[in-house]
Write a structure and sequence with these properties.
Length: 428
């Protein structure tokens, strides 16, 4: 291997676009896999042609064996950095970067960046507000904790999952039993076995998504979006609309200050981070976190609204760290260049997708910027219960709020059988 080279661990989700970004800087990529098989939800994301080499571990290796396998495979190579492409690659990226002596968040709190219970413990230990919680594989124990804590409603979720998979709001003991039964013993979408369920206090307030990129212990918030949800019977509320906030708004400063303290508590010193934060009468509290790029986002639309996006800034941080740090320090708070809405379609029906008859009308909306993550032709559209079952996402970007709101109303008025051509069985 000659020239500049790096390692991407599990280059799926948004991480699959990193090779092209690094190529702009003349950096080649080696793709390292954390497991022998790509999780089903990410299989369509992988193209071996993007990488100089792909290194795949053998089946049934332990985590420690996977680390040693990859260190041996990478021995003697000149590498500039290691980065996680998505959630499943976080811990291996921490281990490899630490062992190779490269920029690293290191492994001391690596587990807390994946395990939601350990994450809250790390925040609490550092004096950063966290959510009250209990971990158990027994529904009775979680129900007892709920009653003793005096909570009318709690959230039950897996310790390690993605795309809001199996997140339940529980008011009764029956709800708790159903949630724990659905979670414990299941292999989740990223291939991890759920040995326990996590019960947490339900935080009522406005939800936000906040992205950041860190370099040498200095964190820069890249964007903040509100997240409005709608209730789903039998599941947790799902995000239906996000609004991009201006970088100088007071709530952005409050969220930024909180996230910086949370990153310090989790020892995130380098690279991207994606956080979901709720603000209630007591202030901000972290409800979900990833030491990686935000998944399922439109780089195009976000660049239209911000002049940058989470992925391009992350690539810049690693490819030209001195230039990146200098620019971010001079820039101060991020500046919104246009208004933006991120609209998640919500499905109350099902069928196999045969086409997109409504997409032309959507693209003709004056503020239309991008449409992503639409259910592929030939695959099933199902009623929406979480992020993974959202049938598609549409971005609206422009300078006129009235136009965006008018386009949003038109978009929301469209039925899914108008957007998608649905058939009741697989087309043959």
């Amino acid at each position: 291997m000659n020239g500049r080279n790096c390692v991407i661990v599990d280059a799926y989700s948004t991480g699959r676009y990193l090779p092209d970004e690094f190529k702009r800087y003349g950096i080649g990529t080696v793709h390292v896999m954390s497991a022998a098989q790509i999780p089903a939800i990410f299989q369509s994301h992988f193209s071996a042609d993007l990488y100089g080499e792909t290194i795949r571990p053998r089946e049934r290796m332990t985590d420690e064996e996977v680390v040693e396998f990859h260190l041996e495979a990478l021995r003697g190579r000149k590498l500039e950095f290691v980065i996680a492409g998505c959630e499943t690659g976080v811990q291996l990226a921490d281990s490899l970067s630490e062992r190779l002596g490269l920029a690293s968040n290191r492994t001391a709190l690596s587990g807390a960046r994946r395990d939601k219970a350990r994450l809250s413990d790390a925040l609490a230990s550092a004096g950063v507000r966290s959510i009250a919680q209990v971990v158990s594989d027994n529904a009775g124990e979680i129900a007892k904790w709920k009653h003793q804590a005096g909570f009318d409603e709690i959230v039950i979720k897996p310790l390690n999952s993605t795309d809001t998979e199996d997140v339940f709001l529980c008011s009764t003991d029956v709800d708790v039993q159903r949630a724990v039964g659905a979670i414990v013993g299941k292999t989740n979408r990223v291939g991890a076995s759920n040995r326990f369920a996590l019960g947490q206090e339900k935080i009522s307030g406005q939800k936000y998504t906040v992205n950041a990129v860190s370099i040498d212990r200095e964190a820069f918030v890249t964007e903040v979006w509100t997240c409005d949800t709608i209730p789903i019977e039998g599941a947790s509320p799902v995000c239906s609309l996000e609004r991009l906030l201006g970088g100088m708004e007071p709530i952005v400063h409050e969220l930024s200050d909180y996230l910086v303290r949370a990153l310090q508590a989790l020892q995130i010193v380098d690279g991207p981070a994606h956080a979901e934060i709720i603000v209630d009468h007591r202030g901000p509290v972290l409800v979900d976190f990833g030491a990686r790029l935000q998944g399922t986002m439109s780089a195009k639309a976000r660049t239209m609204a911000l002049g940058h996006n989470h992925m391009t800034l992350t690539a810049w941080r690693y490819a030209d760290p001195k230039s990146f740090a200098g620019y971010m320090r001079r820039r101060g708070a991020y500046k919104r260049q246009a208004l933006a809405l991120c609209v998640s379609l919500i499905s109350d029906t099902g069928g196999v997708v045969a086409g997109y008859p409504g997409l032309e009308a959507i693209r003709k909306l004056p503020s239309f910027a991008d449409a992503i993550a639409f259910v592929p032709i030939g695959q099933k559209l199902v009623p929406t219960i979480d992020l993974a079952s959202t049938p598609g996402i549409v971005y609206l970007v422009g300078n006129e709020l009235r136009q965006l709101e008018d386009d949003y109303r038109k978009l929301r008025a469209m039925r899914m059988d108008q957007v998608f051509d649905l058939v009741t069985q697989d087309p043959s």
